[in-house]
Structures are given as structure tokens and as C-alpha cells.
Amino acid sequence: MKIGNYKFSLKKFEYLASRSEETHCFGAVLWVNGKPLADCGNSGQGGPTDVDIHLECQELGKEIEAFLAKQPKVVPPGHTFELDLDLEYIVDELVQQLLLERQMKKIKALTKSNLVFKTAGESYHWRGWKKQTIASMLKHPQGPAEIRKVIAEELAKGCILVNENIPEELIPQS
Length: 174
Fold this sequence. Notes:
Order of helices and strands: EEEEEHHEEHHE
Strand content: 25-35%
Number of helices: 4
Strand order of the largest sheet: 1-2-3-4-5
């Protein structure tokens, strides 16, 4: 994430889904412009994210915090309230990005053997065939027709097809 002349990233990111209750439970190191700046984490129980600037980086930390304090407030997507653009907000956004990347990687892997759909509520579900990949279904005489039928059923429910490995001609035009 880049803001002004500062490029932020997380390293040594450890996420504990089982401990995440109201917020994400994690630990990480916040890096700025290729250098470690702070240790950060959240206990996952609804409290704020802690950002502890390393002692040797206090001056840079103050510089960054002063710069961020001058930036406009942020309105999170789907909300009407404003948040300060501070290091806590940046860390939380980076965590969201990392977790979304992990989820999308898993979903992409599912598309090899399944038709994966996203609902209006932003959840995912999939439909597949026992011991069949999408590639093998496409080679089977009845496979393309079956794929087309399942896609049509799910699209009629308002779902969105996630797969990128389906020939265009099998996707019904709406």
C-alpha cells in the first residue's frame, strides 16, 4: 500500500483464525519503504490493533504519523463514518488484503475441479463432479452440456461464476 512517499507492507504475518472472534487475531511486522518500522498485532477479541514502533525508528515513526495526520479521513466501503488515516488503519487494511489474497488463492485452486460461484452476499459455494476436473468434464461427451446447465442454474439464482477456465460458449448470455 502506497500513501505519499511511503510504501507500507507486512512481513512475518501470522494469522490465527481460531482465535479471531470480533477482529482478526494476528501478529506481524510493519515495513515502510523496505525497512521494518513496527511490531503490530491484534488479540482478535474486538480491541484495537497495536502498532509498536521500534525504538530505533521513533523519529521515522513520528514523521510518518505527522504526515498521516494531515491526510483526509477515510470512509470505509459500505459505511458512512470516517476513520483517521493512521498506522492502525494501514495495518488493518494490509491484513484485510493479505487475508483476501489467501482466500482468493484457495478459491482459484477450487476452480480446477469445481464450478465456483459468488453470491450477492459475497460468500462462495461450488459444485463439482466426483473424481472429475473441469478439464476432464470438458472432454467428456456430455460434460460441456452438464457444465452449461449448472452455470445457467446458478446464474438464474443471481450468482456470479468465478471460474476463468470455462469456454465462453458454455456461459449463458443474460
